[in-house]
Amino acid sequence: MNIAANARLLALLSAAHALGTLRGGARRRFEAIAREQPAVRASALLWRERLTGFVELAPAVNPPAAVWTRIRNLVDADLQEARLAQQKAAPPAPTSPARTTTGWWGSLAIWRGASAAGLAATVLAGAIGLQFWQQAREAQQVKYVAVLNDDRSAASMLVTFDAKHRQLTLQRVGDFNVAPDRSLQLWALPPGRTPQSLGVIDSPAGMRLVASPQMLQQAPALAISLEPKGGVPGDRGPTGPVLFHGALIEKTL
């Protein structure tokens, strides 16, 4: 199935996959197609990066008091259900009046302790959720995105730039091999100027590079060339063939 030919369908499936709402057989089929089709794989990675960026934009939200009340009611209901089940399963109590009227299971102190334990569990769950939210807010803030294509317009490399950490992330989405005596080098292509090196790609599968936001603001496109091992000086431009290139797009969301 060539879903890459349907841009709208591809975007919907990629977004659903990134959100986790694409499940079961549909998710497995999409992942199988992504392994076979570089364009689908690039779209899935792009949407994952795009939706991760929304975490930075979302404000912190404190749950309303009604949520905590509902949690407390659910905990109390579970405790009450457990109490009734225990009473049904327990052997007949002695005939002592003190035992038949109260018993340790009906002790007020016991249930106060159980309620306190339930409340402590609720507070702990809230603290864990807050910690997870804080970690999510520290996720990457993607500002620029580029999909670099080969000469047949096939997606080969996904490039994203995290402005907060000044970090370029490169992820391979196409199939290509580099000889041991060669290196791939990433270039920014500012209009009317010599291409500027952004670094040598030591791992064809992908890596991270430090980059200047000012350099990327002046470069509407990126390219990857094949160079001698270790790359070439960054102020002279590429000396080998340009294998992949693509527009650098600034995200607005």
Draw up the topology in text.
Layout: H1 7-19, H2 24-36, H3 38-57, H4 65-89, H5 97-101, H6 108-137, E1 142-149, E2 155-162, E3 167-172, E4 182-188, E5 196-201, E6 206-210, H7 213-217, E7 221-228, E8 242-247, E9 249-250
Antiparallel strand pairs: 1-2, 1-9, 2-3, 3-6, 4-5, 4-7, 7-8
Helix pairs in contact: 1-3, 2-3, 4-6
Short description:
This protein has 253 residues and is α+β, with helices and mostly antiparallel strands.
Describe the structure.
The chain is of the alpha+beta class. The chain folds into three domains: 1-58, no CATH class; 65-137, no CATH class; 141-253, Immunoglobulin-like. Helix content is 44%, strand content 22%. It contains seven helices and nine strands, in the order ααααααββββββαβββ. The strands form two sheets. It has a five-stranded antiparallel sheet, covered by helices on one side. A hairpin with a 5-residue loop joins β1 (142-149) and β2. The chain is elongated, with a radius of gyration of 29 Å. It starts with 6 loop residues before the first helix and ends with a strand. The model is unreliable at 97-102 and 135-140 (pLDDT under 50).
